[in-house]
Amino acid sequence: MNIIPQFYKIDYMGYAGKLRERDLAIQLRAQGLSIGAIKLKLGVSKSSVSIWTRDVKLSYAQKRKLYLNSRTGQLRGSIIAAENKKRRRELEEKTLLAIGKKEVGRLTKRNFFIAGISLYFAEGDKQGDSIGFSNSDPRAILFMMKWFRKFLKVPEDKYRAYLYIHDNLNQRKAKKYWSKLTGISLKKFGKGYIVKNDKNRLRKVKHQYGVLRITISDVKLLRRMLGWIAGVLES
After folding, report:
1. What is the pLDDT of residues 22-71, one digit of tens each?
2. What is the mean pLDDT of residues 170-182?
3. Are the C-beta atoms of residues 93 and 65 closer than 8 Å to each other?
4. pTM of the model as a whole
5. Angle CA(227)–CA(233)–CA(234) in degrees, nearest 5?
6. Counting C-beta atoms within 10 Å of the first and last residue's C-beta, which end of the chain has fewer, N or C?
7. H or E, element range at 135
8. Cα–Cα distance between 206 and 116 in angstroms, integer?
């Protein structure tokens, strides 16, 4: 006849299970597993594993392996954190860009006129006897070409283009690119300025098509442009 109460049986079985988990934890630790790995393998708390295995002595090789694994984990965590930060930044930039474009909206003729004057004031010639605008950004060049045609209304054959580019870049390809973008014939491209590339200096190529300079030889137009600039700045 079994006279052991039921609750004593449950406690005994639980205690026996803990003993098996402890013995297995000690064996795994002796094999060189980390506290965290044993915790996951046995499904017990980290503190329990630490207590059970605190007397297990690890070899130098085992300690080194655990250290390298922890460093790898830290590095992996740092990489993931950096990637997440980059994604958040890219999303924020994309969102702010969309907001900014929406705030500007569609330009009226008046807005377009003032915007072109402002851009010319920043990047155009204010001295000499010609209209001259230089930039490496295709968007700025295209914007000003549209602006010139709309407000200056000069004949197409008056436009001239000049390329400023490093000698390690493809000049012919660059000229074709700018000619297609601006609508200025390759025959209207003057002798450009070729910059000698310093081979001893590692240079990151940002502008593979160089810088384009557009000119219109007309001193009266330049004076008129300066008047528009003064009107914007002094209004």
Report:
1. 888 888 888 878 888 888 888 888 888 888 888 888 888 888 887 777 77
2. 96
3. no
4. 0.64
5. 85
6. N
7. strand 131-135
8. 25
For 79, the token pair is 């990489």
Q: How far is CA 64 from the centre of its chain?
A: 37
Which amino acid type is present at position 184? I
Model confidence pLDDT, tens digit, residues 135-167: 999 999 999 999 999 999 999 999 999 999 988
Q: What amino acid is encoded at 203 in this protein?
A: R
Please list the alpha-helical segments (H only) found in the chain.
6-30, 35-42, 46-52, 60-104, 109-123, 138-147, 171-182, 219-234
CA–CA dist 102, 198 (Å, integer): 43
Residues 2, 190: Cα–Cα separation, whole Å: 110
Rounded distance, CA 60 to CA 142, Å? 67
Between CA 9 and CA 16 the distance in angstroms is 11
Q: Where are the domains of the chain?
A: 6-57, 109-234
**Contacting residues for 46 by C-beta, under 8 A, at least 6 apart:** 35, 36, 39
- Dihedral angle sign, alpha carbons of residues 152, 156, 159, 165: positive
**Structure-token pair, residue 195:** 């910059």
* Residue in the block written with tokens 């490093």: 166
Is 78 a residue whose pLDDT tops 90? no
**What CATH class does 109-234 carry?**
alpha beta
Contact 155, 176 (CB under 8 A): no
DSSP designation for 9: H
Run of H or E including 206: none
Secondary structure of 30-87 in HEC code, one letter for each residue: HCCCCHHHHHHHHCCCHHHHHHHCCCCCCCHHHHHHHHHHHHHHHHHHHHHHHHHHHH
